[in-house]
Amino acid sequence: MREEISGFSVPRWRLTRWLADAGSNVPGYIRSELIASLFGTLPIFAGGVINTILVSAFIAYRIPRPEFIFWLGCELLICSMRLVVLLISHRNAKAGKATPTDIYILLALAWSGAVGYGCFISMMSGDWVAATLACLSAGAMVGGICFRNFGAPRLASVMIILSLGPACLGGAMSGEPILYVTLLQIPLYLISMAMASHKLNAMLIATKLAERENERRANEDALTGLLNRTGLLAHINDRLPALQRDQTGFAVLYLDLDGFKLVNDQYGHASGDEVLFEVSRRILSNLGPDDAAARIGGDEFVIVKASGDEQELTAFAASISENIGARIRLNAGSCVEVGSSMGIAIAPRHGHAAGVLLDKADRALYQAKAAGKKRYAIAA
């Protein structure tokens, strides 16, 4: 599996790395997916941006003082910059280029700070229409922050505090004693929303881990840890686009064991499982980083070799055969030997589809067995 799948770069700066951290013991591929979730989509982004710009514009129109005009200017500047960075990030992610994730996170903090600033000056203005509108907007944004950014719970918590926290200070300094209640009400709300963000993050990570484990089980042979038939077909199909695009050849080697039935009959199925596990280990020890191996049933194995060169493949087949043919010591102390026969199909020479290549390799396997076993043959 690939470690990075989202296309969005993880943050590089110490502060932004800390803010985007999803917690300890979180696999890299999940961290990558969580970073991608922070960017969201343009419609979601537009909802928050339009709300905060309109609210600041209405209040600046109602109270045309410098601090409110400054607030409106900050909202316009920050939201414009966020939009540009968001568009660049999505474009770069699709192109496989680095994304300005650190800048995007800092702009998110700046936007939250601007919302909080608007709450504070509105409450200090003594205009309760403006204060109500600003605080309602900030409260709505806090909900969106929690449910949009819970992939990075620390970031969500800081954004929540910056957005609505200044309302506490504004209430305390407003000269209205009844607003002292905000010193209790708002912190409790902020704490509950931050806790919700962390809880949602934990649930998301647990779900993604379960999905990956289910995927692994669906594509992996339980005894050997190799791919099963489903995983093998997926692996071959993943190689086909490159084959069609630039004719990057690869080979399918269909292999079964000679003498395995005798081991099962003489020593039992538990010993047979030991042999299968040891054979799988020996196969893996011969593979390169771009190769793959599968057990597709009984004593049948398939190797996908990242090479279409016939001479290289025959040398590889000989090496595998020699390695498998070495003695295997069972846990009970006995030693057994099994051989291997192989059929080889080369893409694109023998086909452009997984089913066709496996069928050609299987037929070549029977040709090898008919020639005396412990041999290999290339498909006609």
UniProtKB/TrEMBL annotation:
Q: Where are the transmembrane segments?
A: 34-62, 68-89, 101-123, 129-147, 154-172
> Which keywords does this chain's UniProt record carry?
Membrane, Transmembrane, Transmembrane helix
Q: Record keywords: Kinase included?
A: no
UniProt keyword GTP-binding present: no
Which PROSITE patterns does the UniProt entry name for this protein? GGDEF (PS50887)
Under Pfam families, the record lists:
GGDEF
Domain named GGDEF: which ranges?
248-380
Could you identify this protein by its name?
Answer: GGDEF domain-containing protein
**Source organism:** Phyllobacterium myrsinacearum
